Amino acid sequence: MIIRRGYSNGPEGQVHWRMADPGNARSQPDLYCFSPAPFSSIAYANILPHLAQHRRVIAPDYPGQGGSDGGSASPSIEDYAASMLAVIDDLSGMSEVYATGFHSGCLVAVEVALQRALAIKRVVLVDVPAFEPETRAKYLTLVGAPFEPTVELESLSKAWDMAVTKRSAIQPLEQCLALFTDTARNGPRMNATFHAAFTYDVETKFAALQTPATILATKSMLLEPTRRAAQLVPNCDLVEVLDIQRSVLDENAAITAGQIIAALQSSACETPSSS
After folding, report:
1. How many Å apart are CA 211 and CA 110, to the nearest integer?
2. Which position has the higher pLDDT, 267 or 136?
3. Fewest C-beta atoms under 10 Å: which of 111, 189, 256, 265?
4. Which CATH class for the 3-133+192-268 domain?
5. What are residue 54's phi and psi, to 5 degrees?
6. pLDDT tens track for 74-100
7. Measuring CA to CA, which residue among 126, 171, 130 is closest to residue 34?
8. Residue 270 pLDDT
9. pLDDT (0 to 100) of residue 5
10. Distance between CA atoms of 32 and 112, rounded to whole angstroms?
């Protein structure tokens, strides 16, 4: 399946997105995918075709990331949601849509649903960073502070380690390098999404969510925070997929996509389409 790329106008300028479209096989509402820090929509490149069996699947870049304009040094999840809603308005109009997120993208999915409750049919949150306030404050200091690049290659060592060293055993080197350049191009804004995530009031926001939600927990470092998210969200189902222990959107893309699609079909959300 060919992944299209395009742009929509947002409050901070043009918003770049990736789209997988099954064409004539489309029969279900659009699904919007919100990416994890520090990556843009490139994080969803491998899973988009698996998700797009009977629906368009769109993964936008946050302002100042990937191919999108704008982006302040210290954005908020609310800022990101406003730009994501501009994409939804442009591509899906008045139709109901679904939203999913991975890691910090879960927070964006929740905020989109809070800002536009009637438009979001269901959210599916995968591995949710629903840390307690003390832990968020600690991580904000560790990874949410403004990044200060230098002319020395060493200043990008953490980005290289995250995108290449830790992934080279499970992803082709070409993909690892693409993830590295996707991160490095953010320059001083490399930690911006971490900052947005760790300053988001998870307890208040999650408690206010009225949109039906499914929370998927894999066997990762976010297992306990994800279980906590299920306690905070009043209208949700928790599904633990403990067979997945790494590479949720890549090596296990087909399995993860199957779980997301099953969640969309649950609770009479939609009628499963014949293959």
Report:
1. 9
2. 136
3. 265
4. alpha beta
5. -135, 20
6. 899 999 999 999 999 999 998 999 999
7. 126
8. 52
9. 96
10. 10
Q: Domain segments of the chain: what residues?
A: 3-133+192-268
Please report, rounded to a whole number, the percentage of residues in the chain having pLDDT higher than 70. Answer: 97
Q: Are strands 97-102 and 31-34 parallel, antiparallel or unpaired?
A: parallel
Pair of tokens at residue 262: 């099953």
- The residue assigned the tokens 């067979």 is 243
pTM confidence score: 0.93
227 contacts 274 by C-beta, under 8 angstroms: no
User: Contact 43/36 with Cβ under 8 angstroms?
Assistant: yes
End-to-end CA distance of the chain: 16
Residue 24: predicted pLDDT: 83
The Cα–Cα gap between 15 and 35 comes to 14
Side chain identity at 164, as an amino acid letter?
Answer: V
Contacts 24+ apart (CB under 8 A), 139-145: 139/194, 139/198, 140/194, 140/195, 140/198, 140/199, 143/191, 143/194, 143/198, 144/191, 144/194, 144/195, 144/197, 144/198, 144/199, 145/191, 145/195
Residues facing residue 58 across a β-bridge? 19, 32
